[in-house]
Every structure is written in C-alpha cells, then in structure tokens.
Inverse folding.
C-alpha cells in the first residue's frame, strides 16, 4: 500500500482536513465576532440604559447636594430667627420690669372712687379747656 497514488490520496486528504479545519475555525471566529441582530439590539439597549442611568444618577447626586446646601441654609436661618426671638423676649422682659414699679405707683396714688362733677354741653368744654390751660 505504499503505492504513490495512495500516498498522494492520503496527503490530499490530510491537506483537505487541515484546510477544512482552518476554514471551519475561520468561520466560527467570524460567527462569534459578528453579533446577531438580537445581540446587537441587546448591546444597544444596555448602552442606552447605562447612559440614562449614569445621567440620572448624576442629576440625583446634584439634587442631593442642592438639598444639603438648602438644609444648612435653613438651619442657620432658624438659629438666626431663634436668636432674634430670644432678644425680643429679653427686651420685653426689661420693659415689663421697668414699667412694673410705675404701674404700682400709679395705682397707689389714684383714689379708688374719684367722683367728679360732669358738665355736659359747651360749658363742659370750656371748663376742660381751662383745666388744661391752668
């Protein structure tokens, strides 16, 4: 069986097998690198979702930052208003303490039942004007 024709047939068969293996390998690589329409759509959707979620996350982080800034501003404003209220109450207490003795003096100097003669009409107006003038 060492006949030259059978050797060339075997050689041709081996060449065909290796050539066929190379072609199959090449075809498999092309198939794996070439995405199917479904894979292409899925990849496009993944990319869109990633972009949208990334921008949404960035916007949410910006909003959180703004809200934190607003919260700090409101805290300082509340403190300022509380200080103003405390100062106003302190001022009112000083006024009350100052007026309190005057009120007691005024109440003690006024007789409890002062009766005055009341004149109505134009004569009452003249008498009141004389009291103010004199």
């Amino acid at each position: 069986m060492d006949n030259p024709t059978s050797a060339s047939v075997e050689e041709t068969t081996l060449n065909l097998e290796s050539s066929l293996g190379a072609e199959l390998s090449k075809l498999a690589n092309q198939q794996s690198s070439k995405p199917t329409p479904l894979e292409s759509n899925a990849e496009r959707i993944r990319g869109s979702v990633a972009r949208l979620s990334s921008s949404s996350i960035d916007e949410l982080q910006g909003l959180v930052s703004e809200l934190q800034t607003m919260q700090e501003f409101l805290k300082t404003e509340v403190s300022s208003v509380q200080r103003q209220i405390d100062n106003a109450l302190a001022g009112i207490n000083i006024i009350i303490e100052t007026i309190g003795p005057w009120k007691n003096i005024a109440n003690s100097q006024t007789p409890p039942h002062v009766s005055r003669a009341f004149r109505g009409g134009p004569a009452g107006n003249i008498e009141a004007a004389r009291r103010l003038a004199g």
Residues 36 and 92 are 82 Å apart (CA to CA). The first helix runs from residue 4 to 33. The chain is about 85% helix and 0% strand. The mean pLDDT is 75.
